[in-house]
Amino acid sequence: MASRDDLIKREALELWGQMHDEPAPEVSGGELLQLICRDLDLFAYDRVQSPFLRPTLIMRPEEWPETRKG
């Protein structure tokens, strides 16, 4: 089974390929996503703004079980 980092890298490489006609730089998946998004206006973007999600179904990173202490 692929690790989370491997999955992110795979998705980032696919996105890079759709947006650019050149090979992706040799960086991690997270860094590649930062490169892809650096010129985008993402301040107004919130991926959980959906009429199909109830507030009780939305978990932000600080609420993820793996980030909880104790």
Describe the protein's architecture and organization.
- With 70 residues, this protein is mainly α.
- Helices cover 36% and strands 0% of the residues.
- The chain has two helices and no strands.
- The radius of gyration is 15 Å and the shape is extended.
Per-chain topology:
Elements: H1 4-19, H2 29-37
Helix pairs in contact: 1-2
Tell me the total number of β-strands.
Answer: 0
Order of helices and strands: HH
Gyration radius (Cα, Å) is 15 Å
Low-confidence stretches: none
Distance between the termini: 28 Å
Helix content: 25-40%
How much is the average pLDDT? 82
Q: Helix/strand/pairing class, anyone?
A: mainly alpha
- Approximately what portion of the residues adopt beta-strand conformation? under 5%
Give a short account of the largest sheet.
none
What is the general shape?
A: extended
Helices, by number, come to 2
List keywords for this structure.
70 residues; mainly alpha; extended
In brief:
This protein is an all-alpha fold and 70 residues long. It has helices at residues 4-19, 29-37.
